[in-house]
Amino acid sequence: MSANFPEDAAGVEVENSSEFAAVPDAFQRLWTPHRLVYIQDGQQPHPDDCPFCLAPGMDDEKALIVARGKHAYVLLNLFPYNSGHLLVCPYRHVATYDLATPEEVAEIGSLTQTAMRVLKEVSHCDGFNLGMNQGRIAGAGIAEHLHQHIVPRWALDANFFPIIAGTKALPRLLGDVRQEIADAWPSDTD
Asked: I need a labelling partner for 104 at 20 to 30 A (CA). Which of 15, 16, 149, 177 fits?
């Protein structure tokens, strides 16, 4: 243990920023080194092993797919930030949004809207985080296959359990969430 790294109650060394030379600013910082695995070299699958290319050829339940369109599909994130964290992916193996066809872009948008409506209905969420990380440098876990994140959010859903314990508490099983969302998905959007 050092002055800059006192131990917390769990015996983990915690960096004390007041001991470093710095000029304070208005930002608070949340350090998440456990996320480094998503941005390090060598973390991208071989194109033949792309999970977003393999999923459509699998059974929907096994692949966690909740809905299929003509150009894109929706599935649960296997490593969710919150219960109901969905991904919208084009079937075509394309890396960035600017390379998507107008039809893919339109369907990704339409599926995103439907996913938000379904999630509001089944999970009673209070809001959403939507986003696309474009390229490894931007933090894309699977940088070579375009995918949009739809993360449902609730008032008071954030806590420090993931940071302190390195664990994300998810109150529902993936299979149960997939089934509930798939059952509530409107059939006229196929």
From this structure: 177
User: In b/e form, how buried is each residue of 111-133, taking b as 16+ CB within 10 angstroms?
Assistant: bbebbbebbeebbebeebeeeeb
Given phi > 0 = left and psi -120 to 50 = alpha, else beta, which region is 77?
beta
pTM for the full predicted model: 0.71
| Structure tokens that stand for 152 in this block | 């449902």
Residue tagged active-site, from 71, 85, 145, 147: 147
List residues bridging with 74 in a β-sheet: 67, 88
124 belongs to the catalytic site: no
Distance (Å, rounded) from C-alpha 120 to C-alpha 126? Answer: 8
- For 6-64, how does the pLDDT look when each residue is reduced to its tens digit (9 = 90+)? 444 555 565 666 666 666 666 656 565 655 555 555 555 565 788 999 999 999 999 99
The CATH fold of domain 51-189: HIT family, subunit A (3.30.428)
Record the tokens describing residue 136, joined without a space. Answer: 């490894």
Report domain extents, the chain.
51-189
95 exposure class (CB count in 10 Å sphere: 0-12, 13-18, 19+): middle
**DSSP-assigned states of every residue in 160-190:** SHHHHSS----SS-HHHHHHHHHHHS-GGG-
